[in-house]
Design goal:
The complex is a heterodimer.
Chain A: H1 2-33, H2 52-59, H3 65-96, H4 104-113, H5 118-131, H6 138-160, H7 166-173, H8 178-189, H9 191-207, H10 210-215, H11 224-229, H12 240-275
Helix pairs in contact in A: 1-12, 2-12, 3-6, 3-9, 4-6, 6-9, 6-12, 7-8, 9-12
Chain B: H1 2-7, H2 10-41, E1 44-45, E2 53-54, H3 58-64, H4 67-98, H5 105-111, H6 113-117, H7 120-130, H8 137-144, H9 158-185, H10 190-198, H11 203-231, H12 235-240, H13 252-261, H14 265-296
Antiparallel strand pairs in B: 1-2
Helix pairs in contact in B: 2-14, 4-9, 4-11, 9-11, 11-14, 13-14
The chains are: A mainly alpha, B mainly alpha.
Amino acid sequence: MKEEKVKKILLYAGAIFLFIFCIAPFVWMVIVSLNKHPDFLSNNVPFILTINNYIQVLTTKSVHLLDYLRNSIIISLAAAFFATFFASLSAYSITRMNFPGKIFIPIALLGFSMFPQISIVGYLFKMMTDFNWINTYYALIFPYITLGLPLALWIMLSHFSQLSKELDEAALVDGASRFQILRKIIFPIALPGAFSTFMLIFIYSFNEFLFALMFTIDYKARTIPVGIALFEGLYGQIPWGYIMAAAVVAIIPVILLIALFQKYIIQGLTEGAVKG
Amino acid sequence: MARSRKKYSSGQTWQAYIFNSPLILITLIFVFLPVAGTLITGFFRNVTFMPNKFIFLENFYRLFGDVHFWQSVRFTLLFVFVSVGLELVLGMMFALILNEAFPGRGLMRVAILIPWAIPVAISARIWQLMYNFDFGVINYIVIHLGFVSSPVNWLGSPVGAFFSIVISDIWKTTPFITIILLAGLSLIPDELYKQAMIDGTNFIQRFYYITIPLLRPVIVVALLFRTIDAIRIFDLIYVLTGGGPGGSTSSISLYAFKYYITGDFGYGSAISIVVFILASALAVLYIKFGNFAGELK
């Protein structure tokens, strides 16, 4: 009885700490973004609420906040789509067909996913320069697909391997091609798995920094994390109010995704790490 | 060869390779080729506007005598050790909390994803503001709670900057460890705990004799995964301290990056190869121990 009580108190204390720990910086960002003076904690600086920071970052053309956001969303959507698509094709063949290399491919890909980005960014930069892709969406979409593929493949493998092979065999007898079976039977059943894969790769691509920093130059392709990291004031002072307002706008898409699809995201994260 | 011909039908093999070709091609071009390129470039004097010259191990000799390189190695290893260790302890606490049923748990699971999902470069800027010497909220709190009498120079001193980076990294990545451990916890059957309670064990005994041993494979996987990730730390440091003050918080990745942007690809590649070797050694362990997770299921 006594143990139960102690446990309960610890549990609630821990839960409250956990909650504050997670959201405090986020809340602080919102508070500063809504303030006229970001240094209102200093003595003699008044606390004045305003939405002027938001109006400024959204309407000043030279800030390019919405350009960065658009670039980020398009690039991440494309990377998530192609990574999920390519991984589904491979996962289908690996779970359904017998061919040399079916063990090697997922293991090699898992090994590749551990490569530090810094060990490829220099040479990739030269390749992108040769392709004339610097400051274009391609320079980020292709590398992001490769960053997402290992995770995508392992999640799709675990979903496809749970589905009975009899589904395929019956359809093969009816004269369906392998691709038709994947498209019309297997993929629709595994759709929740594909969706969590898509979500995760979208979020990872949305967050990526090093490649975006190296391969983009200006608002034509620069993504939002780089845009905000390099946000500087015109007159030497760091415009904290603007930066925080821009940061709030930048993370709205991610917060929306979490609020709507947290179940899929948690599922994908768990499968991705524990199984691959 | 004869054996494999019997085992595989050539029609199916062809078809399977067609299914795998997008994945293989894109991985070869955008991962394999640049890795091979980096490995080769490490043996060259490859500097913009200078002729490319094969110098074999000279970049690596230079590396051995480079004080700043060793400083970045020391910083990176210390960072990995401290932050991953603390993240594991905290992540375990959080996972144990979230594994219990209590009102508001659903909201909590959303809240915990926020630090994980916000781009590091953006959260680094939030932390930068919070660590501000003059009007940062962290100094405000520690002064008003009476921990210190004058403001702490968080980002301006080597020790302060180190712990600033560690704290921000803990905030960002503990949720990930929590979610992984939580998944492992949910696989442990309730009956084990019930039986142990009947046997008169206390909470700590049950944690030590049931939770830890059964969770060990998941802990190993989470640890390796995080360690591999932490070794290549770049964006948090680039935005938060830029490697400063005085290069004291420059990670290996950041140090290599500095050579890349000044056009010294040969030396930058040589530094990258070190990160690569460190991460690969751990990756082999990770792939090996990853099987544990399969057995648990």
